[in-house]
């Protein structure tokens, strides 16, 4: 009659166990506290029930040691909760270096997902288990939130910038994907499924989908199609900065600040090039591509720029056997998609 | 009961002047309190009606009663009405207005005309909001998150924002009035440490009203400007920052949750000593904890944004401060429990509500501790866990305390007793109905049921059905007091001036009080809740 | 003969001192509200200034520093006049009190006149935000954001000025009918508090909107 009624959600990621542990510990501690207080009150109500109309209670007004105790003890417990909560948060917020990188675009009311290998999905996401997955997300319209209860992760998806989240599924299965930030009429319909599958199955799944090409190779295509290559050549550094080896490297901008060229910076460089001018170059040369390039295409161009230079900590693209080269963006670049800039040229830098 | 000092001899504030105009032009804080009571009660039932519709819709995983559009408007209007037009004005403007000046031994508030003005402003604001409702409602959620509210919603956002904007002035005027009154209108001998905790808490509430409300006003103004002129203050497409809106909104709305609970704590801090016949334990700690809550409350707004993409370090600061602010709340809970211990306890209705408050507030507050834990909040943010958390505090806490306070001061307000037996039964019904409604929502939330969902996966249905069942019981529990209190106003037996043998100054004047509260200005020379010193006077042994 | 102080004593108060102190406490609390209200706008402005330095610099280069400075001088003078008004009230010098109040009102009106002519100027230059806004620089959106804040903040200030002038008119009327004396002139002090506050807000507005334009 009632489909699968339960008291505990699936626990299917590397962090979900700890979140459950925290929950249970808090539950025990708070229940003990609450029951203690309730017991004291109920006991007092029964034991000291007014004997007659005119009876008066005990007149003690305060007790300093007691006050101090029930100020300090809760505070100490609270600090403990804080530390534990913050530690978990660091785990949940910081993706490990070897995570595969996928891009998510939320819009009213669907989730669009791009795999580095080029597969695209709507409202479903296939992932391998035992492999961290990092999602770089943005929205085309209002704020959404990417929520997978079984993984205990959630991250708001904002228009106009990238936010990231990550998880590593630990158990194969089919899990809910919800939009958790109210986003209009069909907010409750912006749901989907996560399919966590063993690596082998995931590999099979990847080969089944008819992807046009890896994200990076698609990005390269767009890099030419939208004319980026006309300015950003790789032989001379004239009016335009060289984009090789840019990703995650410090860039000095005209105000004198140095910033890291992360996804958000690259995205902004395309949608609002004048916001931050690279030191030594001029404003108003690079056109503004807002409305011209779709968010998914930007993700692909970024994947391409990323592939132009090694990520800090990651292996060189041609080095086989490591996780990123098996699943990562680099694989596509070395494949048939890479034409004008060969893998070896990339490695020179 | 104390032998009645004959009550009906002199004219009281209800009989002093007659006619409809004498009510609409009154500057008497007691009459204004009644005007407010009528208004917020009506608005509460309106908001409650929306809640019932939502609960009915959620009986089924599919949209069976209302469409998704309507559902979205329902929770938005429910939130807006309940927060700004019921809960924030509820205790301060009704019980606070009625009791504050009397508890201070004053003839009225410092600025009586401003007080009346604040009621008119409030009514006007409510009218604008209800107008927005009848024009088709609003569907942004009570939080008005941008850019949805500014660029995407096609509903009457501006009208609703204007309504809330205006109601803000009413809040500010009330807060200003209370602060000035507390500072300047105390009876001779009534030093700060002789004030009842009621006044301390109202004072703390007023500080927040005065300091936080203008920020909301400005924020809503910017939303309206952005919507009307399409200029993109918060829209990233035009260079704005949607997260800045969230900062500004929560800078008001987090303190606002303490606007909603401090008055409830005020009421409970009066009821418990009165029905335990015992001074409030740890008076100074309780008094200062209210001030601590009011000030720290301004520093924790970021805990609503742990998953919004703000920096990890700012999130840590906000999490830590959220734990700090729980300490003064804990102090209060322990002191209330200690007051009950070894008292001379009676189980009258106000006491039942007060104990209900302590229990439910503790549960609500403790789940706040879950939410303040960064890593845990990531999972339950924007799920029913949060919905359950705040209903436990706002409905289980504040509405309970409000009902308790209404019963406690009812003899003073109306001059009549209420049917005690029936009232006790209702208090228990409310308590049970409440828990049945909202406890399942904690489970739902942890299972991952997101809030603001008009339809949901089937596995959540059972818990939703439980919750809806609870809500109907709760509804009965709320309608019944309305009926019997109205009945009591006319037909119940008259009350004496101090039916509970309580210590506050308001109990030293007849029930109902004369227009200027006291025959002669009282002089205070005892500590608060001093049953020992007032033994003779209260005829206690 | 009736004592004017006793006449003005409202029924909820016991003594005139209590009434006076309460009234000024009320005004101070009200000003706390105002501080937070403008404070919110100043914070939001600062955030965007940091996010979009170029656009905001371009925006303030559009400001007419001369008019802004004139207006600042005018407002400072009104504050001085208001101070004179208070001291005259203290001495029971009703005639001079009235003159000072008139001066405050007139100068306030001049301020508003200048301000509104600036608004009209901006409107003609297509700098008023909204669909009539035009800007050819690459930072058009950010310039518009600057002007949004400019119009909201100075507009809100102008509303306060208009209310202030209304208060002055009311005070003038009460001076004229002889309500004030050396013993009783609380409303003048309270009105003065408000006026000075509005002035101070302007100083900050001047600093954030006009002065950065000097850098260009
Ligand atoms: C009256 C209203 C009220 C009150 C008083 C509180 C009180 C608290 N709230 Fe709550 N809260 C809301 C109303 C309220 N809240 C609302 C409306 C929302 C959602 C808004 C929305 O998104 O729509 C919300 C959301 C909310 C969030 C964000 C959740 C999210 O969206 O992800 C957080 C996170 O930190 C939080 C925390 C707290 C904390 C720590 C307290 C503390 O002040 C609680 C302190 C009290 C206690 C702790 C209990 C007593 C203590 C003891 C008995 C001590 C002994 C216990 C132990 C040692 C374990 N609240
Ligand atoms: C003071 C605040 C307050 C109060 C008292 C309540 C009271 C109740 N609330 Fe509400 N609630 C909020 C504040 C409050 N709520 C807020 C701020 C939100 C968030 C909104 C948002 O997401 O934007 C919310 C959201 C909210 C939701 C989540 C919706 C969603 O996310 O999808 C639910 C769901 O169950 C709910 C239920 C209830 C119920 C059952 C009551 C019950 O206690 C109500 C009991 C009352 C009655 C049952 C009324 C009985 C009266 C009649 C039967 C007569 C009706 C007749 C006439 C109108 C003439 N509330
Ligand atoms: Cu997307 Cu809710
Ligand atoms: Cu909060």
Structure description:
The complex is a heterotrimer of chains A (349), B (541) and C (216). Chain A has helices at 16-47, 64-93, 199-208, 215-225, 228-231, 263-271, 295-307, 323-327, 329-334, 343-348; strands at 100-107, 110-114, 120-122, 124-128, 133-139, 144-148, 153-157, 163-167, 173-179, 192-197, 250-252, 258-260. By secondary structure, chain A is of the alpha+beta class. Among the domains of chain A are: 100-208, Immunoglobulin-like; 215-348, Cytochrome Bc1 Complex, Chain D, domain 2 (Orthogonal Bundle). In chain A, α1 packs antiparallel against α2 (64-93) and α4 packs across α7 (295-307). Chain B is mainly alpha-helical. Chain B has one domain (26-508): Cytochrome c oxidase-like, subunit I domain (Cytochrome C Oxidase, Chain A, Up-down Bundle), CATH 1.20.210.10. Chain B has helices at 20-24, 29-57, 68-103, 112-134, 148-152, 157-184, 197-229, 242-276, 283-296, 312-340, 349-372, 374-380, 384-414, 420-447, 461-491, 535-538. In chain B, α2 (29-57) packs antiparallel against α15 (461-491), α8 packs antiparallel against α11 and α8 packs across α13 (384-414). In chain B, 67% of the residues are buried. The mean pLDDT of chain B is 93. Chain C contains 7 helices and no strands. Chain C has helices at residues 4-7, 16-51, 53-61, 65-91, 94-124, 140-176, 186-210. Chain C is elongated and about 65 Å long. Chains in contact: A-B, A-C, B-C. One heme-A sits between chains B (143, 257-258, 260-261, 303-304, 322, 325-326, 329-330, 333, 362, 365-366, 368-369, 371-372, 377, 381-382, 386, 389-390, 393-394) and A (29-30, 33, 37, 74, 77). Copper (II) ion is lined by residues 254, 257, 303-304 of chain B.
Number of helices of chain C: 7
Distance between the terminal alpha carbons of chain C, to the nearest Å? 67 Å
User: Proportion of β residues of chain B?
Assistant: under 5%
| Helical coverage of chain B, percent range | 55-70%
Number of helices of chain B: 16
Low-confidence runs of at least 5 consecutive residues of chain C: none
What is the number of independent domains of chain B? 1
According to CATH, what is the topology of chain B?
Answer: Cytochrome C Oxidase, Chain A
Overall shape of chain B: it is globular
Based on DSSP secondary structure assignment, what is the total number of beta strands of chain C?
0
Q: Please summarize the sheet with the most strands of chain C.
A: none
Q: Note poorly predicted spans of chain B.
A: none
- CATH-assigned fold name of chain C: Four Helix Bundle (Hemerythrin (Met), subunit A)
Largest interface: A-B, 91 and 100 residues
Oligomer: heterotrimer
Ligands bound here? heme-A, dinuclear copper ion, copper (II) ion
């Amino acid at each position: 009659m009632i489909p699968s009624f339960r008291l505990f959600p699936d626990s299917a990621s590397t962090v979900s166990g700890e979140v459950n542990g925290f929950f249970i510990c808090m539950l025990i501690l708070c229940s003990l506290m609450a029951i203690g207080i309730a017991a004291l009150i109920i006991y007092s109500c029964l034991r000291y029930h007014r004997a007659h109309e005119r009876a008066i209670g005990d007149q003690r007004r305060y007790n300093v040691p007691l006050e101090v105790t029930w100020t300090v003890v809760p505070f100490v417990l609270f600090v403990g909760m804080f530390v534990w909560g913050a530690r978990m948060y660091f785990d949940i917020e910081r993706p490990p270096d070897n995570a595969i990188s996928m891009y998510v675009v939320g819009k009213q009311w669907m989730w669009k997902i791009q795999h580095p290998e080029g597969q695209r999905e709507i409202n479903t996401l296939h992932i391998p288990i035992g492999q961290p997955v990092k999602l770089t997300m943005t929205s085309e319209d209002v704020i959404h939130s990417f929520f997978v209860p079984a993984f205990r992760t959630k991250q708001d998806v904002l228009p106009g910038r990238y936010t990231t989240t990550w998880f590593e599924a630990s158990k194969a299965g089919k899990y809910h994907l919800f939009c958790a930030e109210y986003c209009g009429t069909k907010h409750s319909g912006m749901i989907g499924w996560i399919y966590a599958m063993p690596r082998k199955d995931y590999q099979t799944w990847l080969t089944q989908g008819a992807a046009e090409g890896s994200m990076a190779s698609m990005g390269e295509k767009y890099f030419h199609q939208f004319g980026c290559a006309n300015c950003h050549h790789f032989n001379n550094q004239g009016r335009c900065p060289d984009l090789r080896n840019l990703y995650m490297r410090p860039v000095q901008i005209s105000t004198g600040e140095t910033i890291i060229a992360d996804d958000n910076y690259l995205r902004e460089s395309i949608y609002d090039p004048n916001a931050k001018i690279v030191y030594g170059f001029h404003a108003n040369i690079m056109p503004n591509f807002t409305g011209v390039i779709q968010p998914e295409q930007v993700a692909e161009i970024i994947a391409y720029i990323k592939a132009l230079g090694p990520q800090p900590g990651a292996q060189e693209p041609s080095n086989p056997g490591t996780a990123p080269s098996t699943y990562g963006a680099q694989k596509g670049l070395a494949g048939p998609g890479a034409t004008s800039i060969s893998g070896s040229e990339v490695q020179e830098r | 009961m104390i032998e009645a000092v004959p009550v009906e001899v002199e004219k009281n504030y209800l009989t002093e002047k007659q006619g409809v105009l004498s009510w609409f032009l009154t500057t008497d804080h007691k009459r204004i309190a009644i005007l407010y009571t009528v208004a917020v009660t009506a608005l509460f039932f309106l908001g409650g009606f929306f809640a019932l519709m939502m609960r009915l819709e959620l009986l089924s995983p599919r949209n069976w009663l209302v469409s998704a559009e309507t559902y979205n408007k329902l929770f938005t209007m429910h939130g807006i009405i309940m927060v700004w037009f019921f809960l924030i004005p509820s205790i301060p403007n009704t019980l606070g207005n009625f009791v504050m000046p009397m508890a201070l031994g004053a003839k009225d508030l410092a600025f009586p005309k401003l007080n009346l003005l604040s009621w008119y402003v409030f009514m006007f604001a409510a009218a604008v909001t209800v107008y927005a409702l009848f024009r088709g409602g609003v569907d942004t959620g009570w939080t008005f998150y941008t850019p949805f509210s500014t660029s995407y919603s096609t509903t009457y956002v501006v009208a609703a924002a204007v309504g809330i904007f205006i109601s803000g002035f009413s809040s500010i005027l009330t807060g200003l009035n209370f602060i000035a009154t507390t500072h300047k209108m105390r009876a001779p001998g009534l030093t700060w440490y002789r004030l009842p905790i009621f006044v301390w808490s109202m004072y703390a509430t007023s500080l927040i009203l005065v300091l936080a409300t203008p920020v909301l006003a400005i924020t809503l103004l910017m939303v309206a400007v952005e919507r009307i002129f399409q200029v993109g203050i918060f829209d990233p497409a035009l260079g704005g920052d949607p997260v800045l809106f969230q900062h500004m909104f929560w800078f008001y709305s987090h303190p606002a949750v303490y606007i909603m609970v401090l008055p409830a704590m005020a009421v409970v801090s009066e009821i418990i000593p009165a029905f335990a016949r015992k001074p409030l334990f740890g008076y100074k700690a309780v008094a200062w904890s209210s001030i601590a809550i009011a000030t720290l409350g301004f520093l924790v707004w970021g805990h609503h944004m742990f998953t919004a993409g703000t920096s990890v370090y700012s999130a840590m600061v906000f999490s830590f401060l959220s734990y700090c602010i729980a300490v003064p709340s804990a102090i209060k809970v322990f002191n209330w429990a200690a007051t009950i211990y070894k008292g001379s306890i009676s189980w009258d209705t106000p006491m039942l509500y007060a104990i209900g408050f302590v229990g439910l507030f503790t549960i609500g507050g403790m789940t706040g501790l879950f939410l303040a834990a960064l890593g845990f909040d990531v999972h339950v943010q924007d799920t029913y866990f949060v919905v359950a958390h705040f209903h436990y505090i706002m409905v289980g806490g504040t509405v309970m305390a409000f009902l308790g306070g209404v019963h406690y001061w009812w003899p003073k307000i109306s001059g009549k007793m209420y049917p005690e037996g029936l009232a006790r039964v209702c208090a228990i019904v409310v308590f049970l109905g409440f828990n049945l409604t909202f406890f399942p929502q904690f489970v739902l939330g942890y299972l991952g049921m997101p809030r603001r969902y008009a339809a949901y996966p089937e596995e959540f249905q059972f818990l939703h059905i439980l919750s809806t069942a609870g809500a109907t019981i709760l509804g009965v529990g709320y309608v019944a007091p309305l009926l019997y209190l109205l009945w009591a106003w006319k037909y119940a037996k008259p009350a004496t001036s101090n039916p509970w043998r309580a210590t506050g100054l308001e109990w030293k004047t007849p029930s109902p009080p004369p227009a200027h509260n006291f025959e002669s200005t009282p002089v205070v020379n005892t500590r608060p809740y001093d049953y020992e010193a007032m033994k003779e006077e209260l005829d206690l042994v | 003969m009736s004592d004017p102080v006793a006449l003005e004593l409202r029924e909820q108060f016991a003594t005139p001192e209590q009434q006076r102190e309460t009234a000024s406490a009320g005004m101070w609390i009200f000003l706390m509200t105002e501080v937070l209200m403008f404070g919110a706008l100043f914070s939001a402005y600062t955030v965007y200034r940091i996010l979009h330095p170029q656009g905001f610099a371009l925006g303030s280069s559009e400001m007419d520093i001369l008019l802004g400075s004139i207006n600042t001088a005018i407002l400072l003078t009104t504050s001085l006049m208001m101070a004179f008004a208070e001291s005259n009230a203290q001495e029971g010098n009703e005639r001079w009190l009235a003159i000072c109040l008139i001066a405050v009102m007139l100068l306030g009106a001049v301020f508003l006149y200048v301000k509104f002519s600036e608004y009209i100027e901006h409107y003609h230059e297509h700098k008023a935000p909204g669909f009539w806004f035009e800007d050819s620089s690459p930072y058009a959106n950010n310039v518009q954001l600057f002007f949004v804040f400019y119009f909201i903040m100075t507009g809100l200030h102008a509303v306060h000025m208009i209310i202030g002038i209304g208060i002055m008119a009311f005070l003038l009327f009460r001076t004229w009918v002889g309500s004030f004396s050396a013993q009783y002139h609380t409303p003048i002090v309270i009105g003065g508090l408000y006026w000075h506050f509005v002035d101070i807000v302007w100083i900050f507005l001047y600093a954030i909107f006009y002065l950065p334009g000097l850098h260009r």
